[in-house]
Amino acid sequence: MKIMICGSMSFAREMLEAKGKLEGLGHEVLLTSDAEACVDNPGLNMDREHCHEKQIDKECFDKVAESDAILVVNYPKDGIEGYVGGATLMEIGIARHMDKKIFLLHDPPREEKLRYAFEIGLTNPIVLNGRIDRIGQT
Known about the structure:
The structure is a single chain. This protein has 138 residues and is an alpha/beta fold. The chain has one domain (2-134): Rossmann fold, CATH 3.40.50. 40% of the residues lie in helices and 14% in strands. It has helices at 12-24, 35-40, 48-54, 56-66, 86-97, 117-122; strands spanning 2-7, 28-30, 69-73, 101-104, 126-127. A five-stranded parallel beta sheet has the order 2-1-3-4-5, with helices on both faces. α1 links the parallel β1 and β2. The chain is globular and about 35 Å long. The protein starts with a strand and ends in an 11-residue tail after the last strand.
């Protein structure tokens, strides 16, 4: 299966780890081109000039379209369990619109903590409970 990994670039290191695990399971993995750079420079994804120049949003949307599924790497951040940021929400929306499978590594955030958790739930994501190896079994 071809899988695009999505998530806050605060989790860039974890995204690269997930990529290795998925590839080890025989999946083809897509990832934003600046993931490795974000490990060393976590603020890079918030640099408007960088994002415009590299067209990171469009690149990610194109990779979602090219994939069979997305994996949302959603660890706790800013006091929110299962954090999903705005850019990731857009990627989830594109995946939903294009009838892609949507996997969440962990439970989605609660609505009391993140207003658009309701919309995430409407996409009927498959929650992996931290078990990447469940992809392919669902």
